[in-house]
Amino acid sequence: MALYDYLAVLFFSAFAIFIGGSFILASKMIGKSRTTNEIKSSPYESAEHSVGRSRDIDTEYMPFFMIFLPFEVVGVVMLLWGIGAKQMPYAANIEMLGVLLSAALLSVLGYKLITDGRR
Questions:
Q1: In angstroms, what CA-CA distances link 64 with 3, 49, 50, 58, 75?
Q2: How far is CA 85 from CA 71, 95, 112, in A?
Q3: Which residues pair with 45 in a beta bridge?
Q4: Domain coordinates of the chain in residue numbers?
């Protein structure tokens, strides 16, 4: 790759960070300053008082993430790998098959965690 290609990627990354940062900065500047009210900022669950901490929800959604990762992210990587698989060395193809196998195992494990939690 030429230096121009690296500069193009660097410029695109800087531009993407600038756009996202400018939207966040504009919303902070334009938005109203809110005063903290304990009652208004408390979680509302169908008129029920909340039990536990708000961080407990992380473990509830972990199995869904374990299914999302193989099917979405690894799926796209496998599509791109399929385009150039003939030009890649043998060892790289074996590594990509290992990624596919680990993604399949993660999806089975995530499905197992979801179905066990519903009983």
A1: 41, 26, 23, 11, 16
A2: 20, 12, 32
A3: 48
A4: 1-32, 55-119
Helix, strand and coil in the chain, % to nearest 5: 75, 0, 25
pLDDT tens-digit profile, the chain (119 residues): 688 888 888 999 999 999 999 998 988 888 777 667 776 666 666 666 666 665 555 566 777 777 777 778 888 888 888 888 888 888 888 988 888 888 888 778 777 777 776 55
Global pTM?
Answer: 0.41
Residue type present at position 118: R
Specify the amino acid at residue 12.
F
